[in-house]
Amino acid sequence: MNLRTLTSFLAVTALTTGLAWGGQETLLEQSRSYFEPIPTSAPELKGNPATPEKLLLGHMLYFEPRLSASSLISCQTCHNVGLAGADMQETSVGHGWQKGPRNAPTTYNAVFNTAQFWDGRAKDLMEQAKGPVQASVEMNNTPEQVLVTLNSMPEYVELFKKSFPKEKEPVTFDNMARAIEIFEATLLTPNAPFDLFLKGDEKALSAEETQGLDFFINKGCVGCHSGVNMGGTGYFPFGVVEKPAGEILPEGDTGRFQVTNTAGDEYAFRSPPLRNVALTPPYFHSGKVWSLNESVRIMGSAQLGIALNKEEASAITAFLKTLTGEQPVVTHPVLPPQTDQTPRPVLTTPGV
Amino acid sequence: MNLRTLTSFLAVTALTTGLAWGGQETLLEQSRSYFEPIPTSAPELKGNPATPEKLLLGHMLYFEPRLSASSLISCQTCHNVGLAGADMQETSVGHGWQKGPRNAPTTYNAVFNTAQFWDGRAKDLMEQAKGPVQASVEMNNTPEQVLVTLNSMPEYVELFKKSFPKEKEPVTFDNMARAIEIFEATLLTPNAPFDLFLKGDEKALSAEETQGLDFFINKGCVGCHSGVNMGGTGYFPFGVVEKPAGEILPEGDTGRFQVTNTAGDEYAFRSPPLRNVALTPPYFHSGKVWSLNESVRIMGSAQLGIALNKEEASAITAFLKTLTGEQPVVTHPVLPPQTDQTPRPVLTTPGV
User: Fold this and answer.
1) Residue B180 belongs to a domain with what CATH number?
2) Is pLDDT at B114 greater than 60 in this prediction?
3) Terminal-residue alpha carbon distance, chain A
């Protein structure tokens, strides 16, 4: 918050020049102080070392619909590797065609988020992976039933053994999540035009995109959207200056308040990462806005208290499109054969 | 039918020896007269020549959920390339979580079927591909809306142009189906143990599997399950000798009769191809039987009027497992970015 306020203040003195800030820093230098390029290989994960076996296991589990009660829904359903790790839905559709409460964040580059989910209730991807499997509106399964499923297929049992070779009983719900985390950490989108810019190629951005970057930094967007992922680093009230329309910010969803129960967290949500944002409409936790340009304008008024004019909003939108990186090419894994012990699909919804 | 009756009759004289039939043909020679190995490359399709562009387009469309009204369901949903081209459901689940009327046949090797669907109402894969897109219980879309979707994404428009270079307006519903057909024709599973046997490696089958093959031919299964796909070549009444339980053969589904309106076609269904059958439970058009062994016994009594004993059913089941071929390794395509013109998901169900 302080950073944003400071930036907004300083922006007044350095709005229009585009390539100099306080007469000292170039836009590239300034950008490098806020942002980092997406790495080209997966980061190491504390307490969860990667091995080829664990990566293969996680890859299979990400695509495994039999982790859901219905045998119809996998991580891939809402985090589609053909659709930039998201699902093009307002809010995701899960078990029984139920609509979930919030828009599905992309799994791409998610390893660089400070925490996961719109309210940050999972500290990392391993914690995150356990949520949707159990959520009644998503995969509607239980850890116990997942273990029955995994233990029913010898190929999985073998792969868990190889992935966690020191453990006596390697087939666990936590290890399922650890393997998925290892796979998800490889879903990176490096070499976006903006990454090339950050690495020193100032011609990677057009004049309009460069202008948009300048606006993005000096009008204050960077206050919430910085770091490798340009977001995903903290929680901010949606409507800090001006509350958006009730449809965009549904009253029933108080965001991080539901996690912390702290008054200041009402309607606070994780600032979403903006990597590949042009590929992942619709926007906001409610998924109610499909236009990126409109989303930029809403953010201007709601978060910064400024009415972006047409040119400014277009330039920022053009800049945001330079955050589209190389999409990972993912093989669809061949999943293990069912056995007579594998639980059969349950399509009914409890209580319905 | 005549073939089956003849075979059943002759079987009496050649039941137990396994490797000689009427004292003349070996089991290998006999097998070669009924079956062919799965080829290692896609066959040419009459009137639909394959090109790399068309294959890529079809590959993308197979995985494209935006062909459905909800943007949630693609060919891949019910014909999962991780699950041997099927979905492990009794009957497939589509738009609005509606359960469809019949079990999803695999797309693998489907190009070798005489016709498509359980009732053969589509003469080829191109015709087939147009069905589920429009079925209200599946993708619930219309050809007109599909064209709006495809035309909204420049990457698709470009790829249709390259795939159908001589056509003035290449983005058509039929061309969508042609491209999907080209992709599906590549979904082959060669080199199953039984293919190796057919190619001359008699040691590719164990003693029990060889015995099962002998039973399969000489007890009459081959009457309906022959050719490359060991089935998929004709229509046969389910329960030709003994009507199975109502749950397995639901009264409401009269099968091919619904297509031909001919009395003899009541409860007639296409004999399903048996390639990879061990990977694609549950069985029959109703999907009501999960055990392959049980399915073999039901077929024995319902179609051949014989009570297979435990040893016979086990041997035939063991043989059927030798029909599991090398599964194709398919890349998940990166799909084109949405635009403001792309229709948004419609989750509601008409009339509900």
Assistant:
1) 1.10.760.10
2) yes
3) 44
Mean pLDDT over the full length of chain A: 91
Burial of residue B264 (CB within 10 Å: 0-12, 13-18, 19+) is: exposed
Q: The tokens 């016994």 sit on which residue? A: B297
> Quick one: how far is CA B94 from the chain centroid?
18
> Residue A82: which of B63, B88, B90 has the nearest Cβ?
B63
Interface predicted TM-score (ipTM) of this complex, two decimals: 0.91
Say if residue B282 is preceded by a cis peptide, omega within 30 of 0: yes
Considering the domain architecture, whether residues B242 and B160 belong to the same structural domain is answered as no
Tell me if residue A138 is catalytic. yes
The pLDDT of residue B116 is: 87
Please indicate whether, in this complex, the C-beta atoms of B338 and A97 are within 8 angstroms of each other. no
Same domain, B104 and B223: no
**Residues B182, B195: one domain?**
no
Q: Cβ of A88 and B278 within 8 Å?
A: no
pLDDT tens digits for range B115-144: 888 888 888 899 999 999 999 999 999 999
- Catalytic choice (A53, A90, A138, A181): A138
In this structure, the answer to whether residues B290 and B213 fall within a common structural domain is yes
Residue B205 CB-density burial (10 A; 0-12 exposed, 13-18 middle, 19+ buried)? buried
Q: Which of B59, B71, B97 to mutate to test the interface with A (most CBs of A within 10 A)?
A: B97
Q: What angle do CA A336, A337, A339 make, to 5 degrees?
A: 125
- Residues A108-118: tens digit of each pLDDT: 999 999 888 88
**Whether residue B179 has pLDDT greater than 70:** yes
Which pLDDT band holds residue A257 (cuts at 50, 70, 90)?
confident
Strand locations in B147-243, DSSP E? 235-237
The verdict on whether residue A285 carries a ligand-binding annotation is: no
Last-in-domain residue among B153, B186, B219: B186
Tell me which residue range forms the domain holding B256. Answer: 29-37+190-322
Is B65 in Cβ contact with A340 (below 8 Å)?
no
Angle, vertex CA B229, rays to CA B225 and CA B230, nearest 5: 20
Residue B12 lies in a domain: no
